[in-house]
Design a protein that fits this description.
about 450 residues, alpha/beta, 8-stranded parallel barrel, 8 strands, about 45% helix, globular
């Protein structure tokens, strides 16, 4: 494996959907950031997800301590302060045309594509709302002595408009990004502008590149290209001549068992010991400057460590990182850590794991390990897979339903006791579930028939 040394190593850890970052306490925040910095990240990026949140028009930023806007914004600032104290550069991410829920009026709404609270930037009043929101954020950050190093703008996910005036959307998003950048520079004169290629098509990258080159624009310093699921290379995606090529790396899934949907903590912690090194090799070969690692919480910590541990040049191999991880967090000997590294590595392809042998190995190794949330998450992951096998091998409906009840309870334990997040809705709605689980939920949970199952089961 090559030795890497990418100068840009960004942790993008948005506070939304009730994830670990949104719910973390002050001391937990410090610990998360301290560990991220130790593994090799040097930039921290945050995003204000306005989904379902009113702005509270009585005040530019907040109205009262009871306001969801106030609470969320203050937590974002807390993360920024702690990140700066931990030695990070600071980056703020904006979704191009997303606004607060109480700013959505039918005559201003975006058309066609995208989702979220989206206004059409070709309507002057709507564009003014977007810019005023950004100006309020920048002004309050500056007044709070939080200095941004980078502004990053995303065209998609929460973003998009397909009206005639906004087409092609990717250029409209680029123009919005430049306007946000000019506003930000009023408060942070040395700030840089980057684009996220999340959900970009090859056509988007070509249109954006041709536009920037044709107009000879120099304010965009890089584009972080999106890697589709199970891919380690953005293939033929382009970047403008004036931009560095970065990658937007998703930490939230494994090496590629798409049939299982082992992502977003639905089956516990994830690890990608093959996908991530291959991605970094591709980035290096393309002359890339660095990466933006998209993280949704505690469950993807191993992938964060692998990406920036390798990407910073601090470690030479995945095996070394997994061994150090076990020594650092499980408090085991070097010999035991090597065995742990082999055990952890197997979960890159979870459907290929021999569960009987893996359980025996886990129980032996765990006997000498520190009993922390990091250890517990792997115990529960193993239990979920053991239950999955029993469920799919058992044809007796009554017994199968009892096993699914146990599975549902173990997953709740994982989310509530281990990750400390919402036990009912943590990304469950956006990750396809096993057919047997969906059927069981409709029959027993949605119709309130849980009394059929024993609490001791």
């Amino acid at each position: 494996m090559s030795k890497f040394s990418f100068p840009v190593r960004t942790l993008y850890a948005p506070l939304h959907f009730g994830n670990s970052y949104e719910l973390a306490g002050r001391h937990e925040i410090r610990e998360i950031l301290k560990e991220a910095r130790w593994w090799g990240f040097n930039t921290y990026s945050n995003f204000y997800n306005q989904l379902g949140i009113p702005k509270d028009a009585h005040s530019p930023i907040y109205y009262s301590h009871c306001s969801p806007n106030f609470r969320k914004w203050e937590r974002i600032k807390l993360w920024f302060r702690e990140a700066r104290a931990a030695g990070f550069d600071l980056e703020y991410t904006i979704c191009a045309n997303m606004v607060f829920v109480d700013q959505c009026r039918e005559n201003l709404m975006a058309r066609g594509k995208g989702f979220g609270h989206l206004l059409c930037p070709s309507i002057p009043e709507a564009r003014s709302i977007m810019m005023n929101n950004a100006k309020d954020w920048f002004a309050d950050l500056a007044q709070s002595n939080i200095v941004l190093n980078t502004l990053t703008v995303s065209a998609y996910d929460f973003g998009g408009c397909d009206c005639e005036k906004c087409r092609p959307w990717i250029i409209t998003a680029g123009k919005l990004a430049r306007e946000y950048y000019k506003l930000a520079a009023m408060y942070f004169p040395d700030i840089k502008l980057r684009m996220i290629g999340w959900f970009w098509s090859e056509s988007d990258s070509q249109i954006f590149t041709e536009w920037v080159n044709r107009e000879k624009l120099t304010d965009f310093v890089s584009v972080s290209l999106w890697l589709k699921y199970n891919k380690s290379d953005p293939v033929s995606m382009m970047v403008p001549d004036s931009c560095r090529r970065n990658y937007f790396i998703h930490a939230g899934y494994n090496d590629g068992n798409s049939l299982l949907n082992d992502r977003y903590a639905q089956w516990g912690p994830v690890v990608a010991p093959e996908r991530i090194p291959a991605t970094l090799e591709s980035l290096k070969a393309s002359g890339g400057e660095g990466f933006m690692v998209y993280s949704e919480g505690d469950f993807d910590e191993l992938n964060r460590a692998i990406t920036t541990g390798l990407g910073s040049g601090k470690f030479r191999s995945v095996d070394e990182i997994l061994k150090i991880y076990a020594e650092r967090y499980f408090k085991v000997s070097a010999m035991e850590a090597q065995a742990w590294a082999e055990w952890l590595k197997m979960w890159g392809q979870p459907l290929d794991v021999d569960l009987v042998a893996t359980r025996k190995m886990f129980d032996n190794l765990a006997a000498n390990a520190e009993n922390s949330w990091r250890l517990k998450q792997f115990d529960v992951k193993l239990k979920l897979f053991e239950l999955r096998n029993k469920i799919e091998q058992n044809a007796v409906p009554e017994k199968q339903n009892e096993l699914i009840f146990q599975f549902d309870r173990e997953r709740e334990r994982l989310l509530r006791e281990v990750y400390r997040v919402d036990g009912d809705d943590y990304f469950e709605n956006i990750v396809p579930q096993p057919g047997w689980l969906t059927k069981w939920q409709k029959e027993f949970i949605h119709q309130n028939k849980m009394e059929h199952f024993s609490a001791e089961a």
